UniProtKB/TrEMBL annotation:
Name listed for the protein in its UniProt record: Glutaredoxin
Lineage: Bacteria, Pseudomonadati, Pseudomonadota, Alphaproteobacteria, Rhodobacterales
Gene name in the database record: grxC
NCBIfam families associated with the record: GRX_bact
GO molecular function, one term: glutathione disulfide oxidoreductase activity
GO biological process: cell redox homeostasis; cellular response to oxidative stress
Family statement drawn from the similarity comment of this UniProt entry: Belongs to the glutaredoxin family.
One family name in Pfam for this protein: Glutaredoxin
PANTHER family: GLUTAREDOXIN 2, GLUTAREDOXIN-1-RELATED
GO cellular component: cytoplasm
CDD domains listed in its UniProt record: GRX_GRXb_1_3_like (cd03418)
Source species: Cypionkella aquatica
């Protein structure tokens, strides 16, 4: 499985939903909480081009946020990306 990174905040419902989908698929991921660290959020923004959370990377490729992750799954494209 490819390395999965997810930038989150503690109270974000979209972050919780994205992590839930990854857990359901048995995917281990690295969670980076940007809620209390402006420098981490800035690094995420520079990397992803977006300030909102979650921001998800699979194998170093930016896939977007929660809706993007679910759309990939519904299109049957998420599992091949994770493999």
């Amino acid at each position: 499985m490819k390395n999965v990174e997810i930038y989150t905040t503690q109270t974000c419902p979209y972050c919780i939903a994205a992590k839930g989908l990854l857990k359901k698929k048995g995917v281990a991921y690295t969670e980076i909480d940007v809620g209390a660290d402006p420098a981490l959020r800035q690094a995420m923004t520079e990397r992803a081009g977006r300030r909102s959370v979650p921001q998800i990377f699979i194998g170093g490729t930016h896939v977007g946020g929660c809706d993007d992750l679910h759309a990939l799954d519904h299109a049957g494209k998420l599992d091949p990306m994770l493999a």
